[in-house]
Design goal:
It contains 8 helices and 7 strands; from the N terminus they run αββααβαβαβαβαβα. It is of the alpha/beta class and 196 residues long. It folds into 2 domains: 51 residues, no CATH class; 135 residues, Response regulator (Rossmann fold), CATH 3.40.50.2300.
């Protein structure tokens, strides 16, 4: 977007030319609005031609126009297939994403920015506790709702570091009618915010 190298963008962040932050994994996060503002400044100063100015939508605009998205993180292939079948039968304006382990989930969360994360706690490679902890550590994902679907007892949560405040915990078998209610409420909220 800026037509410069990645290392140049990193130096711009370090000098404060572009506001941004570094994730726990060392990746840079830069708001789209900050890139737009920098490009407008350069166009006004004559550093770039007006016709080269990229018209990038703001993060809020992107969120208001895209479908409600759900990321289901589950390593049981049969249960993941059941999620896909049940959720597709809801006939709602949503996009379903899936991940089979914690690392895949972290990558998809960063790239896709889901509205709702449905996560199992017993996952290979990176468990659900760690996935949730990493998501909640990033302020960029404050508005991502998290629902845990687990067969673990609440007593075992403390042994594994507990769960952050605001995480909804539901037991297995998966209570699809309850999940449907959560999703319908999320879609309704998205529609109200788009109109406001």
């Amino acid at each position: 977007m800026l037509k410069v190298s990645l290392s140049h963008v990193q130096r711009m962040c370090e000098r404060g030319v572009i506001p941004g932050w570094r994730t726990g994994g060392g990746h840079r996060r830069i708001p789209v609005d900050a890139i737009n503002a920098l490009l407008r400044e350069r166009a006004a100063a004559g550093a770039i031609h007006q016709e080269d100015l990229l018209s990038l939508p703001s993060h809020d605009t992107l969120n208001s126009k895209r479908e409600f998205s759900i990321l289901v993180v589950e390593d049981d292939a049969a249960l993941l297939k059941l999620y896909k079948a049940k959720i597709s039968n809801w006939k709602l304006p949503l996009r379903l994403l899936t991940a089979e382990d914690g690392y895949e989930a972290i990558l998809k969360i960063a790239r896709e920015r889901p509205d709702l994360l449905i996560v199992d706690l017993n996952l290979p490679r990176l468990d659900g506790f760690e996935v949730i902890k990493r998501v909640r550590k990033e302020s960029d994902f404050d508005k991502t709702d998290i629902i845990v679907i687990t067969g673990l007892s609440p007593d075992s949560f403390a042994e594994r570091g507990g769960l952050p405040h605001g995480v909804t915990v539901l037991g297995k078998p998966v209570p699809f009618p309850q999940l449907l209610g959560f999703v319908q409420a999320g879609i309704a909220l998205r529609q109200r915010m788009a109109v406001a």
